[in-house]
Write a structure and sequence with these properties.
heterodimer, A: 466 residues, five-stranded parallel β-sheet, 15 helices, globular, B: alpha/beta, four-stranded antiparallel β-sheet, 8 strands, binds iron/sulfur cluster
Chain lengths: 466, 205
């Protein structure tokens, strides 16, 4: 297979292969015109990009390779319609529907069986594929790098550019490899891996870099765990995060709706085997982390870098502003901090394996009576499959609400939120001020840590339950 | 198409905090329509108003300080514009009247969005930003010379890649530029289609 190696020096990195195989032409000034294989839109930003293109009289170049979904502001309460809890939100849905129809692109609508959070359904449908470039006007598009794709978030203008031309004008980022050696200990998860990386190297640690996650602990992850790891590459300021595809990747994708079929599949799978960093490939930056030393993590401040081990305390050099917002003191132990609410959902941790692990801990238990707890499956498919296994019953009996799929209370758009100022333990990816509602104090953590904390009514170490 | 950016002199508004995310620049609840306008009122809404969703100005927030009412430049902290990719953050800044942000570093998606909308994201050392803030006088940005200066005579240069610079200087539209390369794109796709037919989804799905 010449494809990925074409014009490349030996040895080359996975990133070099992904990049070089998509360069249409070099641009004056050192950048490149890079081919974009897939564009995914959602209703929060999709209608404005499509409408703006239409107003400029620019057609979508290849509508078959552009997809849209309603996930961000759709109601997640049972029996939902186009009506949203966000004031004026319905217009985002109806305008996206009309714009998608006019542009001839595929929309996974409110009650479509394939509806769900964009980064959950794209892999489920085989839209993201190894070796492809995929962009979406959504910063967590890097989640899909788990499949050996170059997938990243862009702004609306760039989404218009990608749809109108099938390309983007880019400067090649630097390359970084983050290797996780060893084996994760019991009770620790891919969420704890990425939170550890960001806590150690900062929220801007990956700036200007395309990051390959590698090493024994990464290979050992299933596809859903790999997505969790790649999801927060944007919280690390990386352009994207990705993982070399392997047998698990191929097995996950084989037979999915938009994945290649028959002889195309055979040819594709054969060529995808080349998508690895060659021995001796050179990276601009390399980071090594011992996975066996990772403990369950929880954030204490208002940036994802403000995180520490569940058994640690708020550091002495913590920023005053974030501590004031979070109502925490320096030196205060994280475990034992009382919580008001617990949230399991979002493109970080809302897939079937997340819900299975959470429900295994919840089975036969009841959460603390003062905790408002919500579980929002990442896609309508995840919801159906979880219900077929009785997972919804376990969640409900334990005291959780069980929702329709969507982004829901991962972010606050003016509709539904946690109570003002509430302290929430959450499987989401952002602990920014008011991210989950006015004054809401978000602590991000793994599904396991969220369950342990919901049961205890305070931030808790899941390892004590194992 | 954005307004060309050549030189700009303005009293800069200091908002020197690290990791100012796009949720703070324009909270999601302030993105009330699918259009690109009507956002200026929501700029920094969480910090600017006394209540979430309210419109009573908080006098302690710098945006409400009358001396900065005409500011077209923000002095920011590291990792400015991190978080959500929403271009609304930049549209809100433009609509409010800002044309440049000077910060030690920018989140990549935000910096790209700035350039597409005629806002200059200038990367400058934090010490130099502190000097500009303390000078309490106007700052002049000369994009052609890639230089920022203050009246006291000090000046600093900032990096910017050639294409972004040309696009800002001339207010060029990236889509127009790329559409001119339609033949290159078509040739590339034809060759690629032979190698990766599965990428080109047809009516059979
Ligand atoms: S789940 Fe949250 S982080 Fe993920 S796409 Fe939706 S709003 Fe963004």
């Amino acid at each position: 297979m010449q494809k990925w190696g074409l014009f490349l020096p030996e040895p080359s990195s996975l990133f070099d292969k992904l990049w070089n195989s998509h360069v249409v032409t070099a641009l004056p000034g050192g950048g490149a015109l890079v081919a974009i294989d897939r564009v995914f839109l959602h209703e929060r930003t999709g209608a404005s990009a499509l409408n703006s293109l239409a107003e400029a009289g620019r057609p979508v170049a290849d509508p078959a390779r552009v997809f849209a979904v309603t996930d961000h502001i759709v109601d997640t309460r049972p029996g939902r319609t186009d009506k949203t809890l966000m004031p004026g939100g319905q217009a985002f849905i109806t305008e996206t529907r009309a714009a998608a129809k006019a542009a001839g692109i595929t929309l996974f609508d409110v009650n479509d069986p394939d509806q769900g959070i964009v980064h959950v359904i794209s892999p489920e449908l085989g839209i993201v594929l190894p070796g492809c470039t995929l962009v979406a006007p959504d910063s967590h598009t890097c989640t899909q790098g788990a499949f050996g794709a170059l997938a990243w978030g862009i702004g609306s203008s760039e989404a218009e550019h990608a749809m109108a031309t099938g390309t983007l004008r880019l400067n090649k980022p630097k390359s970084m490899r983050v290797s996780f050696s060893g084996t994760l200990a019991k009770g620790t998860t891919p969420k704890d891996m990425i939170m550890t990386l960001i806590a150690q190297h900062g929220a801007a640690g990956g700036k200007g870099h395309a990051v390959e996650f590698a090493g024994e602990a990464v290979s050992a992850l299933d596809m859903e765990g790999r997505m969790t790891l790649c999801n927060m590459a944007t919280e690390f300021s990386a352009m994207s995060g990705f993982i070399a595809p392997d047998a698990k990747t191929f097995e996950y994708l084989n037979g999915r709706r938009y994945a290649p079929k028959g002889t195309d599949w055979d040819a594709a799978a054969e060529s995808w085997k080349e998508l690895v960093s060659d021995d001796g490939a050179v990276f601009d930056t390399s980071i090594e982390i011992d996975a066996s030393a990772i403990t369950p993590m929880v954030s204490w401040g208002t940036s994802p870098q403000d995180s520490g081990s569940i058994c640690s305390a708020v550091p002495e050099d913590a920023g005053e502003r974030s501590l004031e917002y979070m109502a925490l003191d320096k030196g205060q132990k994280l475990a034992g901090t009382p919580i008001d609410a617990a949230f399991i959902g979002s493109c970080t941790n809302s897939r079937l394996s997340d819900l299975r692990r959470a429900s295994a801990l919840l089975k036969g238990q009841k959460i603390a009576s003062h905790v408002k707890a919500i579980c929002v499956p990442g896609s309508s498919r995840v919801k159906r499959e979880a219900e077929a296994e009785g997972i919804d019953t376990i969640f409900r009996k334990a005291g959780f609400e069980w929702r329709e799929s969507g982004c829901s209370m991962c972010f606050y758009a003016g509709g539904e939120s946690f109570d003002a100022g509430a302290r929430v333990i959450s499987t989401t990816n952002r602990n920014f001020e008011s991210r989950q509602g006015p004054g809401v104090k978000t602590h991000i953590a793994s599904p396991e840590t969220v369950v342990a904390s919901a049961l205890a009514g305070a931030i808790a170490d899941v390892r004590e339950l194992l | 198409m954005a307004e060309p950016f050549t030189t700009l002199t303005s009293l800069p508004m200091p908002l020197i905090r690290d990791n100012i995310d796009t949720d703070q620049i324009i909270p999601s609840r302030e993105m009330k329509s699918t259009g690109k306008t009507g956002l200026a009122d929501g700029l920094f809404a969480g910090w600017r108003y006394t209540d979430i969703g309210g419109r009573d100005a908080d006098p302690n927030f710098v945006l409400n300080d009358p001396q900065y009412a005409e500011s077209q430049i923000i002095l920011g902290g590291a990792n400015f514009g991190c978080g959500s990719s929403r271009e609304h953050a930049v549209w809100a800044l433009v609509e409010y009247g800002f044309r440049a942000v000077i910060a030690p570093s920018f989140a990549p998606i935000f910096a790209g969005n700035c350039m597409r909308n005629g806002i200059l994201p200038a990367v400058i050392d934090p010490d130099a930003i502190a000097v500009m803030a303390e000078a309490k006088g106007p700052v002049t940005i000369d994009l052609g010379a890639q230089k920022i200066s203050i009246d006291a005579g000090q000046s600093w240069s900032f990096p910017i890649d050639d294409e972004a610079k040309a696009m800002l200087l001339e207010g060029l539209d990236a889509i127009d530029l790329s559409l001119k390369m339609a033949t290159d794109i078509a040739t590339w796709q034809e060759a690629d289609r032979a190698q990766r037919p599965w990428i080109y989804l047809g009516a059979n799905q």
